[in-house]
Automatic annotation (TrEMBL):
Its EC number is 3.1.2.12. Keywords: Hydrolase, Serine esterase. GO terms for molecular function: carboxylic ester hydrolase activity; S-formylglutathione hydrolase activity. It catalyses: S-formylglutathione + H2O = formate + glutathione + H(+). GO terms for biological process: formaldehyde catabolic process. Serine hydrolase involved in the detoxification of formaldehyde. The active site is at S145 (charge relay system), D223 (charge relay system), H256 (charge relay system). The keyword Hydrolase applies. This is S-formylglutathione hydrolase. Belongs to the esterase D family. It comes from Silvimonas terrae. InterPro entries: AB_hydrolase_fold, Esterase-like, S-formylglutathione_hydrol. The keyword Oxidoreductase does not apply. The lineage of its organism: Bacteria, Pseudomonadati, Pseudomonadota, Betaproteobacteria, Neisseriales. Pfam families: Esterase (PF00756).
Length: 278
């Protein structure tokens, strides 16, 4: 593992590391923010999953989350959004292939050989982080858009691994919207039955056997993708039907950008910090 960036931020350190991922079969970058409290002992971790076209850089340079992470004593780990490198399959569209891994394990050629972002985010990356950095095994997960889909879906599938899950502007039902239909069709194939295991709204209709992971979602009402791709009303209905705890906040005037995330990331950090303290 090689450290490729290291900067003081909000009393702690914002770094980027590069490592060889066995799960993805390629070199990957991830960002980690360690708050000042990590100097004195291990701290809990929030995993942040970014959206389409992003890398590990977008959140650390645009969200302004470091000051809140320092306030609450929480580390933040940001993986990239797909496998990378010349040997990795890609597509000319911004919404498939590199930058668009959708946090699932692909089953179809040519994607299946590298596109295993679910296993990377859920297993390989936390094991690596917990081995090399002063962090505890108390984890929370959050993300934006495609990464909001990833955070909610992962928390529903792995309730033992995460204390809390939140999302900004998430794709809540990828099986029912164009972004998800394109990606799931490519990565998982035409059998839509296989899609439901990776779809938040579909997962909520399954019988829940664990204590549910509480969900916090913020959505801008001036979001250019709201009606066609995001559809938060489907999440509200699915959570109501399942009795799953959801706080959905709708905000007039805000769009899909990182200006929206930066405006409310403080509230998300405080909410996760409380769950991570328990
Ligand atoms: N239409 C946009 C879609 C991509 C987009 O809006 N990506 C969001 C996540 S879904 C993002 O975070 N972009 C990078 C940024 O704002 O820093 C494009 O073609 O780039």
């Amino acid at each position: 593992m090689e450290r490729i960036e290291h900067r003081a931020a909000a009393g702690g350190w914002q770094s980027v590391y590069r490592h060889q991922s066995a799960t993805l079969g390629c070199a990957m970058n991830f960002a980690i923010y360690l708050p000042p409290q990590a100097e004195n002992g291990p701290v809990p971790v929030l995993y942040w999953l970014s959206g389409l076209t992003c890398s590990e850089q977008n959140f650390i340079t645009k969200a302004g989350a470091q000051r809140y992470a320092a306030e609450h004593g929480v580390a933040i780990v940001c993986p990239d959004t797909s496998p990378r490198g010349d040997e990795v399959a890609d597509d000319p569209g911004y919404d498939l292939g590199k930058g668009a891994g959708f946090y699932l394990n692909a089953t179809q050629t040519p994607w299946a050989s590298h596109y295993r972002m679910y296993d990377y985010v859920v297993s390989e990356l936390p094991a690596l982080v917990e081995q090399h950095f002063p962090v505890t095994a108390a984890r929370a997960i959050s993300g934006h858009s495609m990464g909001g889909h990833g955070a909610l879906m992962i928390a529903l599938r792995e309730p033992d691994r995460y204390r809390s899950a939140s999302a900004f502007s998430p794709i809540v039902a990828p099986s029912q919207v164009p972004w998800g239909e394109k990606a799931f069709g490519a990565y998982l194939g035409i059998d839509r039955q296989s899609w439901s295991a990776w779809d938040t709204v579909a997962l909520l209709s399954r019988p829940q056997t664990h204590t549910p992971v509480p969900l916090l979602v913020d959505q801008g009402l001036a979001d250019e993708f709201l009606e066609k791709q995001l559809r938060p009303e489907l999440l509200q209905a699915a959570c109501d039907a399942a009795g799953h705890p959801l706080q959905l906040n709708l905000h007039a005037g805000y769009d899909h950008s990182y200006y929206f995330i930066a405006s409310f990331i403080g509230e998300h950090m405080a909410w996760h910090a409380q769950a991570l303290r328990n």
